[in-house]
Fold this sequence. Notes:
The chain has one domain. It is 50% helix and 0% strand. The protein is built from 4 helices and no strands. The radius of gyration is 23 Å and the shape is elongated. The protein starts with a helix and ends in a 29-residue tail after the last helix.
Amino acid sequence: MITLHSLRERGVEMPDELDEGIEHFSNCLKKMLDTTGDFHWRQERDCFNKCWTSLACRSKEKMPKSGMTYEDLADGVTDLITSGNLPELVKAVVPEVHHEPVPQAPVAPVVV
């Protein structure tokens, strides 16, 4: 799931039927790893642990804000990873840098 989060963050599209479930775990990871704003660490840790335990145990419980079960997601993720449909290398996206011309002060003539 961490790998899929990383791929998703780098712009690799996930299959529609898995995207909602992967997004849930991606959001959990973002909350745990975010270094800005308030952080209710115990609450986030408990939520994180509950979700990951449900995924690992292939729970038939529905995921929050989803019609998908943890078992469905576990099966789909396993199929996705073993399918060979994910790129081996994700090229870094280098943002374009726009350089504005720097205004030059007029140069006074040199008197000799």
